[in-house]
Amino acid sequence: MFLTAPESAGAVEGGLGAYLLGSRDSLAGIAPPPGDYLTTDLIYIDGDAPVLAIGGVALTEVSSSAWVAKLNATHSFADTLWGGRPVLTFSLPVVSGDLGFQSEVENGLSGGFKNTKDGLGDLTVTQMLGWSDGNSHWQLGASLFAPTGYYRKANVNVAGRQVDALSLGKNRWALMPTAAYTYLNPDNGREFSATASVTVSLENQATDYQTAPEMQLEVAALQHLPSGLAFGLAGYGYQQTGDDSGSGADAIRNATGAESLKASVLGTGPILTWNTKLGEIPASIKLKYTKEFEGRRRFESDILWATLSLTF
To answer: Whole domain around residue 294: which residue ranges?
Structure first.
């Protein structure tokens, strides 16, 4: 993902994973027809956590908000491979975010602190291969997350009230194998989509923090209407499969007294899509709200999401 606090969170470093939860929902298993697609996601994320650690200091009442403009360029190939259609996507986020906290755990210093930054996040390259059989569609592939976003170790001078704790990248490579399925009945307009993925990250060498593998399951159920509108619910579940390791993770355990750093969260909310045309250009518009809950050892957020996709 894109908004992180270095050496922070009791689980995924920064309180958020490399992958932005909720990125796959309606029609996730369907490879688009051959052609070029340009998609813009505008996302607002507002989250908080009771305790995070930044720069080796455990902080309380941490909050974070961000506007993310994610630019996605997709090419769907006309030629097939193993009977499936290859699809290649490049995604680059532009982030404007802030990070705030109230006090330090060990000495109880009080007061409000805030850090704000704007810039590029981490580049994602996704290669998928899609098949169809009647009303069933599925895709297999993987995403590679490259550490291209702004990053530096935290510099928190609490006494001097100087904070430089917010980064826009994760400072580590990550790979996410993905399997997606969609059932879409054109007769009654009913859709069910599900995506399962696992994010495996390399160590952040700047902080000696190894984030454990992260499992994601995303689902969506929609009713499509003849007008091109569709409405329904989308949601996801997130769970780390192991414990974070390295001296950075050990420092967080010591500061917070946590026995485990495994993170988890659930999220759900309404989704609305509309297939239309802007002039002669086929377009798809999506609006979505997600409320996260049962968050443990990571940010728990409210997320507003708007997407415009154009076909060329």
So the answer is: 35-311
